[in-house]
């Protein structure tokens, strides 16, 4: 298979390219490409031509920070909406299958737990809105042109990559970074909020499965179904990496959702089985393994 991956330098994209390259001809695209990948601004008009030659296109390139999107909505419209339509357009012209990586951010403040894909969407940030609009364009492209497209909504993705240059990185990376530096862990609010933390290798697993499925705009949650409170996470990280540090509580984060757990039965029906349990991963990953 000839496969293109946009966002190939990101947390998920890098792992996806490495995995697919074992069995396929893969080309990565990123604004800041790693070796073997090509430089591409996804929202530039020439992106359509660059992405036309593939049988499968994984679209992961996106601006991904909720607070940054609140500060600068036009940037998010450009990268995430114009960029996504460019990918769909390339797929339409080149007759490619598309797997579009959206986000659990489309659910807003969830009304039910665990959250099924049929839960209504409601943006709480420009970031979330761009993902909702991207999904709607996927459906429209399917309806108008028969685009073969599936949509994945990852929950809270984590990995060994702590993204030291990224101030907006996820809570797991922040806690492990702090533990490594001997600094306290700060919990926003009471710490009883819960999340579904999914390891990047499980996200890659679902993306790989979808390569073989014709899509009509079908949506799949990608999580584990396991519930972890932020307080439990802080205790896990502290006891494993830095028993001497303190856990503090700060004010609750503005706009924070209380609970976010995925109903993954739909993905399970395709054969997806999350393999990494957060507590096991923390127990078995030494500090030296983190980048
Ligand atoms: C995550 C995604 C976001 C997506 C959303 C979908 C990340 C970085 N962000 O947001 O893109 O829109 O899921 O639901 O993955 N916390 C602390 N202390 C800290 C940092 C965070 O207590 O130092 C708390 C936060 O207040 C929050 C929880 O940990 O309650 C998770 O925060 P975070 O990792 O930023 O992810 P989400 O806000 O869930």
Spell out the key features of this protein.
single chain; about 290 residues; alpha/beta; 7-stranded parallel sheet; 3-stranded mixed sheet; 10 helices; about 20% strand; binds uridine-diphosphate-N-acetylglucosamine
Summarize the structure.
This protein is an alpha/beta fold and 291 residues long. Helix content is 36%, strand content 19%.
Structural summary, described in words:
The protein is built from 10 helices and 14 strands. It is α/β, with parallel strands linked by helices and 291 residues long. The strands form 4 sheets. A 7-stranded parallel β-sheet has the order 3-2-1-4-5-6-11, sandwiched between helices. Strands 12-9-14 form a 3-stranded mixed β-sheet. It has a two-stranded parallel sheet with strand order 7-10. Helix 4 packs parallel to helix 5 and helix 6 runs parallel beside helix 8. The protein is globular, with a radius of gyration of 19 Å. The two termini are 31 Å apart. The structure holds uridine-diphosphate-N-acetylglucosamine.
């Amino acid at each position: 298979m000839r496969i293109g991956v946009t966002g190939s330098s990101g947390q998920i994209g890098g792992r996806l390219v490495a995995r697919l390259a074992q069995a396929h001809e893969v080309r990565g695209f990123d604004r800041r490409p790693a070796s073997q990948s090509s430089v591409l601004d996804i929202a530039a008009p020439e992106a359509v031509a660059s992405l036309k030659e593939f049988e499968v296109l994984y679209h992961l390139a996106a601006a991904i920070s909720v607070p940054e999107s609140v500060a600068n909505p036009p940037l998010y419209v450009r990268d995430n909406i114009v960029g996504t339509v460019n990918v769909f357009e390339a797929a339409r012209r080149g007759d490619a299958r598309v797997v579009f990586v959206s986000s659990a951010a489309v659910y807003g403040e969830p009304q039910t737990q665990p959250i099924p894909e049929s839960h209504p969407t409601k943006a709480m940030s420009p970031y979330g809105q761009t993902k909702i609009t991207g999904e709607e364009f996927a459906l429209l492209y399917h309806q108008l042109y028969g685009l073969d497209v599936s949509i994945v909504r990852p929950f809270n993705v984590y990995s060994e990559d702590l993204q030291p240059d990224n101030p907006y990185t996820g809570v797991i990376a922040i806690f492990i970074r702090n533990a490594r530096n001997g600094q306290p862990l700060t919990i926003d609010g009471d710490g009883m909020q819960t999340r579904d933390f999914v390891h990047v290798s499980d996200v890659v697993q679902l993306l790989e499965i979808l390569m073989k499925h014709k899509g009509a705009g079908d949506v799949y949650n990608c999580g584990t179904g396991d519930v972890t409170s932020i307080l439990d996470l802080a205790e896990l990280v502290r006891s494993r990496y830095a028993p001497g540090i303190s856990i503090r509580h700060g004010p609750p984060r503005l706009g924070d959702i209380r609970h976010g757990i995925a109903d993954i039965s739909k993905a399970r029906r395709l054969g997806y089985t999350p393999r990494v349990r957060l507590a096991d991963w923390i127990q078995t990953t030494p500090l030296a393994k983190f980048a």
